[in-house]
Automatic annotation (TrEMBL):
Family: Belongs to the MinC family.
Assigned keywords, A-Z: Cell cycle, Cell division, Septation
Name of the molecule in the record: Probable septum site-determining protein MinC
Functional note: Cell division inhibitor that blocks the formation of polar Z ring septums. Rapidly oscillates between the poles of the cell to destabilize FtsZ filaments that have formed before they mature into polar Z rings. Prevents FtsZ polymerization.
InterPro entries, per database record: CAP/MinC_C, MinC, MinC_C_sf, MinC_N_1, Septum_form_inhib_MinC_C
Gene for this chain: minC
Ranges for domain Septum formation inhibitor MinC C-terminal: 104-201
Organism phylogeny: Bacteria, Bacillati, Bacillota, Bacilli, Bacillales
Residues in Septum site-determining protein MinC N-terminal domain copies: 8-85
Superkingdom of origin: Bacteria
Length: 220
């Protein structure tokens, strides 16, 4: 009988999961244990809505290749969305209204990603998927689902995407259903914003003209 090692500890929090990775074992053993827990002993966490994941490496120093290998194991599970990776000696950023949280993954049909604050999402939002934020939404990928920025009524919020072809855009309480020709728009990154209560679309190069404060954003 094979006895699996305890190199990976998974803890639940009110807003997601924390993966505590042993920083003393061999890296190959760490990856093996991570795969085993996701595919066997902790398979129940892979069903249901999106789960935010924070990865803590302790004092382990990893190369970019090793880091990507760990993240690939996590991202192969459809509902796990990586929110942060704590590296050795990494300092947590101070709370700042201009700080943007970065997440990677994919929002699939039927999934809703809700975030408090500003979000930089590296990935695609598929038709039937939805991102909702109290602040701004920046998507480095295709937005083909629904995006709602400023959900608490922030009318100066924006929605930006590398490829903007949503089923619906919403900023604060203003809803815009895109015309059919959006699928034929240029592929350059665009953003949506409100002007006199009406939703407008413009190229990302003009974003600072609309929101000068974005020139000082951290994380973008």
């Amino acid at each position: 009988m094979t006895v699996k090692s305890n190199h990976v500890t998974i803890k639940g929090t009110k807003d997601g999961l924390i993966f505590l990775l042993n920083d003393q074992c061999e890296f190959i053993d760490l990856v093996e244990d991570l795969r085993y827990k996701l595919e066997h002993s902790h398979q129940n966490i892979l069903t249901g809505p999106i789960v935010h994941v924070d990865v803590k490496l302790g004092s382990r120093e990893v190369s970019d290749i090793q880091k990507n290998e760990l993240l690939d194991v996590l991202k192969s599970k459809g509902n796990l969305l990586i929110r942060s990776v704590d590296m050795p000696e990494a300092e947590l950023p101070e709370s700042n209204k201009n700080t943007v949280t970065t997440m990677t993954g994919m929002v699939r049909s039927g999934q809703v990603l809700h975030h408090e604050g500003h979000l930089l999402f590296l990935g695609d939002v598929n038709p039937g998927g939805s991102i909702q934020c109290t602040g701004d939404i920046f998507i480095v990928g295709a937005l083909r689902g629904m995006a709602h920025a400023g959900v608490d009524g922030q009318e100066d919020a924006i929605v930006a995407a590398s490829f903007l072809a949503p089923t619906q855009l919403r900023i604060a309480e203003v809803i815009s259903r895109p015309p059919d020709e959006w699928e034929n728009r240029e592929s350059s990154m665009e953003f949506a914003y409100l002007q006199d209560g009406v939703m407008q679309i413009d190229k990302i190069t003009n974003i600072v003209r609309i929101r000068p404060d974005l020139s000082t954003f951290k994380g973008v």
